[in-house]
Amino acid sequence: MFTTPITAVVRPSAATAGRATSAASPGAIRDRMCVVEARIAIVVPDGPEAAADPEAERVRAALAEAVARGGGAVVPPGAANGLVWLVPARPELLGETLDAHPGIRWVQFPWAGVEKYAEAGAFRDEVTFTCAKGAYAGQVSEHALLLTLASLRNIARQARTPRWLPMPPTSLSGRTVTILGGGGIAGKLVRLLQPFGCHITVIRRRPDKLDGADDTLPPSALHATLPGTDVLVLALALTPGTRHVIGRPELELLPPHAVIVNVARGAHIDTDALVEALREDRLAAAGLDVTDPEPLPGGHPLWDDPRVLITSHCADSPEYVTRMLCERVERNVRHLRDAHPLEGVIDPTAGY
Length: 352
Prior knowledge:
By secondary structure, the chain is of the alpha/beta class. The chain has helices at 26-32, 48-51, 56-69, 91-100, 115-119, 137-152, 155-160, 184-193, 222-225, 248-253, 271-279, 301-304, 318-338; strands at residues 6-9, 39-45, 73-74, 82-85, 106-108, 128-130, 176-180, 199-203, 215-217, 231-234, 259-262, 285-288, 308-310. The protein folds into two domains: 6-135 and 317-338, Rossmann fold (3-Layer(aba) Sandwich); 137-310, NAD(P)-binding Rossmann-like Domain (Rossmann fold), CATH 3.40.50.720. The protein has 13 helices and 13 strands. The protein is elongated, with a radius of gyration of 22 Å.
């Protein structure tokens, strides 16, 4: 049936073993306003990819426990009305799974960004899809602050210089910070920035004001905002509309003392334009947890630029990710049973 093997973690309870049950979508549950069974399949990679991941068994076991704490039962896909999908970058395989098991009406992804599934048209009207957006914001916002301070204080250059090299730092206090994106990471970062007395502008699609920000503006205000920006932080979802949202025109609008920090997706920035801006001293520094391409190949000019600090897409730790994902799954299983709205619902139109 499947083009590549997958494994479903199956620990059915005695009450559900061998019993055929009907599926219920979150919408149908809300309509009936009653508690229903949450029968959840956990689908993980199999074969060499799984064997190479020493964390796979720990994550599988932790998620099974999370489902149980939420009041659900782990079952095979054929008996499930919910699915935790852990197979990366295989939207066609998800489609085959949903076609084979039409009783599944809810799919939970473990990632905050689901652009590969959105681009492949994997979302379906009859299925509710949720992701981990906002779940990992705590550690990612900390990393954004670290990259900001390191960029302003010349940490990359200092660390690479094998001799005494006094350099005057730039303080974050009182600086103007522009954050692209208004989700969980932005919200956490705004709170982390409060002690520094920054003027914070958040640019996002939703018009409602983000708590703690001085200004919340629509994407159309980006170009008008950039000339007054000291620190530009990218913390938004990757969609066709936000790919290369920072390119040569945007980099030319930033003042030459500005620094740019990216904790979202590498493709938000036109890498060639970034290299050019640094080469021409039109940008003071860059702190990147993500790159395009990713991984960034050896010999790329960004590796050799002493103003660039690159961390290898490691803003959040595996232990933290597993813990936050399990908490999200536990709550969503409980919400499914109790006819409450699910957390992290994906807007298929927006792509995140």
